[in-house]
Amino acid sequence: MTRSLLPLANGTAASLEEVPLWPVRHFRERILEAAFEGARLAALLPLPGCQGRPERLLAVLIHDPRGTLLLGAGDLQGASSYPAFTPEWPQAQAFERDLWESAGLLPEGHPWLKPLRFPWLTDGEVIPGPYPYYTMEGEELHEVAVGPVHAGIIEPGHFRFLCHGEKVFHLEIQLGYQHRGWRRLMTEAPPCRRAALAESLAGDGAVAHGTAWAMVEEALRETVVPPRAQALRSVALELERLANHAGDLAALAGDVGFLPAASYLGALRGDLLNLTLSLCGNRFGRGLLLPGGVRFDAGEEQASRIEENLGAIRPLLEASARLLFDASSVQERFQGTGVLGKAEAEALGLVGVAARASGCDRDVRRDHPAGFYRFAQIPPQTLPSGDVYARAMVRFLEAQQSFAFLESHLRALPQGPVRSRAGEARPGRVAVSLVEGWRGEIAHVAVTGEDGRLLAYDAVDPSVHNWMGLALALRGQAISDFPLCNKSFNLSYAGHDQ
Amino acid sequence: MKGIFQIRQTMGRRTVAFPPKENPLPERFRGLPLLAPERCQAGCSACTEVCPTGAVSLKEGLHVDLGQCLFCPLCEEACPSGALRFGKDFALSASQREDLSIGEGKRPNVRALEIELRRLLGRSLKLRQVSAGGCNGCEAELNASSNVVFDLGRFGVQFVASPRHADGMVVTGPVTRNMERALRETFAAIPEPKLVILVGACAISGGIFEGSPAVAGMPAGIPVDLYVPGCPPHPLTFLDGLLGLFGRRRG
């Protein structure tokens, strides 16, 4: 009898034994069947056996139309290689490079098998070492190498452009400089470090990653989060989205030299961060989240003060964004620049703002609602054009929705406590959480061993899916448009490199 | 054009005075820890047990190492007697690493640079920023330091695009193995005399990533002029530390 993939709701856990286990070749077929039906890859991780070597592969898929996660496992049967998914399913490319690099598993037939994070560098070795950059030959071609240190306050990464004059034929993005050994610390360091680690995976998305982490801990511990805490988590998440979207619009305005909007939106971003600060004592929401709820309540007075502030910020933000979008010089720079088509976005498994700007209708808040989003929907905003304009405009549209969401819920937060006691983690379980962070879909996966301790943990930042999207969006563009395209994606280096 | 002025008029002047007349930060802001060791209950070590980075110590009386502290609320929450609370003071920087370890009544201290350096750099300081494993928290706050609200530019401080144009280096992140060489090369490329400023718990002590085999830490042999604690430090904390180097903290 063939079993089918195990359906799992966002933010819940199942026994590891319930996850169907096939020999790895059959596993591959099952996964590709689901992919053919429209499932996307959320995570692919090795599960260690008794000798610490990877024994099984655990795949977490997302089926948007069915609103469910799908889990399946492949038994490697002692082998250190398996037939790669990527040739048939390009969105697996980064995940399989990770397996190869960090678990020593060879995905046979992978067309782009290159280091992802360089986690194994020893003394004296330097990154990138003998990195096999994609090359072209021709008398009039040249290469431009940029980074790791960039010309601003930006995280490090290396960009290699293959150009013909101004025109970019191909951009290769080589990362790994930010690798901090995050996954290993998550499973091996004392548990009291996990909250801060989750918040530090990508520090501009501390609330989103903190929430995703708290959700898997709660699923493993069978903890029920009080409604008021769920609502406050959504408040913090939408404030984070607002601040970052405002900041991105400011930076995009700055990149095209439209300084009034850059200055106004930059200041408003700070005002929004200050609302999070007033709630939990940190501008990025650090310290707010814990398994079982949130650490800080917003009393009636504070909630109405936040609401009042939002009421003052919103018209200014909207007017500033309109200045930006209405200026013909800005339209000229945004429209038709860095186009990523829907077919490519689908094939690469793009998520979040970048996916919606290429016409992919996906948003965890609608498709896999957990917590407060089960009661308060926010419909996704999509645009078809896939250019810088679309990525900017989706941010503006989402910011308006976040304002509306906060306005309608801050006044009527559910009553009751904001935290409940989290029990002990149950052994032999797998828990998965999805959160729509401001960049896009964040997936956290935790697996407990027979002693209840964490056996494996993985966190997939939206950037893992989306960096390849930026590379493809640059094809055929002028190299001088790179900063603008890069900013329109605004991906995390640390979130990717872990 | 009209729209530009309308928004400008509604927003008004946004730049904050520095130093501010009164602390503008809200009640819940976690700044300089307020220590009252006389309140410690005998045998109690609740704070050290929950601290994720080992910043709190009881060995020589209650001490907090601001270089390791994430300013998270765990110790304050665990303390049964109110011996350890976070105050609102954002002045947290120090010129010496050991000055970041604070006990009762002790504050971190920034010593002004020698007069020669102040004369040379005091009114025009160009800085190169290197993120070496930073999560984009510290980087975001450094970016914010240059916006219209905190406006570092008014003090003659500017972040520049090349180490050759810089008078100093600002480091964020725990310094990953994969960034160590790039960091050394950036430092080497800055002409003398040069300042080095470490921003955030990660750069100062490794922070939450301390002990990771993927982290190399600040290379030995790079002298540090200023430590700016926080996770991430508030832009006012950065302004305060930086201006302290030039003796310009007090207006």
Describe the structure.
The complex is a heterodimer of chains A (about 500) and B (about 250). With about 500 residues, chain A is of the alpha+beta class. Chain A has helices spanning about 25-35, 95-105, 180-190, 195-200, 205-220, 225-255, 260-280, 300-325, 330-335, 340-350, 350-355, 365, 390-410, 460-475, 480-490, 495, and strands at about 5-10, 10-15, 20-25, 40-50, 55-65, 70-75, 80-85, 105-110, 140-145, 160-165, 165-175, 290, 295, 430-435, 440-450, 455-460. In chain A, strands 1, 3, 4, 5 and 6 form a five-stranded mixed beta sheet that branches. Chain A has a four-stranded antiparallel beta sheet with strand order 2-14-15-16. In chain A, helix 6 (about 225-255) packs antiparallel against helix 7. The two termini of chain A are about 40 Å apart. The model of chain A has no long low-confidence stretch (mean pLDDT about 95). Chain B is of the alpha/beta class and about 250 residues long. Chain B has a domain at about 115-245: 3-Layer(aba) Sandwich (Rossmann fold). Helix content of chain B is about 25%, strand content about 15%. In chain B, helix 5 crosses helix 8. The mean pLDDT of chain B is about 95. Chains A and B meet through helix 3, helix 4, helix 7, helix 8 and helix 16 of A and helix 1, strand 6, helix 5 and helix 6 of B.
